Amino acid sequence: MKKILFVDDSKDTADALCAFGSALGHTCAVAYNGESAVSQAAEDTYDIVFLDLMLPDTDGIAVCLEIRKGRSQSARIIALTGSNELIDKERRCIDAWLLKPPRMDELEQLLL
């Protein structure tokens, strides 16, 4: 099973995604802002990070770049976004993209 960090400023969204991941047998954690996500990823090693790109305290891409410098540098980072306009596949930091609200079958496939 995988160790997963869900980063979203919507507490309900982050908690629901974490509960879904946990139900599939993964070890999950949440962060509700960019600063917390960077701190958690620096202190622990995650296999996957689901990252909201529109955080209140910082840009999601900036968070991704910081995560890539720490213990979770090899984590698969999956962007969570509510807008097709934010998807820029040229950004090398992001490994995959998932539109909000994520469909459970898409989310489950990314957790494999």
TrEMBL record:
GO cellular component, one term: protein-DNA complex
Pfam families: Response_reg (PF00072)
InterPro entries in the cross-refs: CheY-like_superfamily, Sig_transdc_resp-reg_receiver, WalR-like
Keywords: DNA-binding, Kinase, Phosphoprotein, Transcription, Transcription regulation, Transferase, Two-component regulatory system
Annotated Response regulatory domain residues: 3-112
Family annotation (CDD domains): REC_hyHK_CKI1_RcsC-like (cd17546)
Modified residues (4-aspartylphosphate): D52
GO-annotated biological processes: regulation of DNA-templated transcription
An MF annotation (GO) of this entry: phosphorelay response regulator activity
Name of this protein: PAS/PAC sensor hybrid histidine kinase
The species this protein was found in: Caballeronia temeraria
Lineage of origin: Bacteria, Pseudomonadati, Pseudomonadota, Betaproteobacteria, Burkholderiales
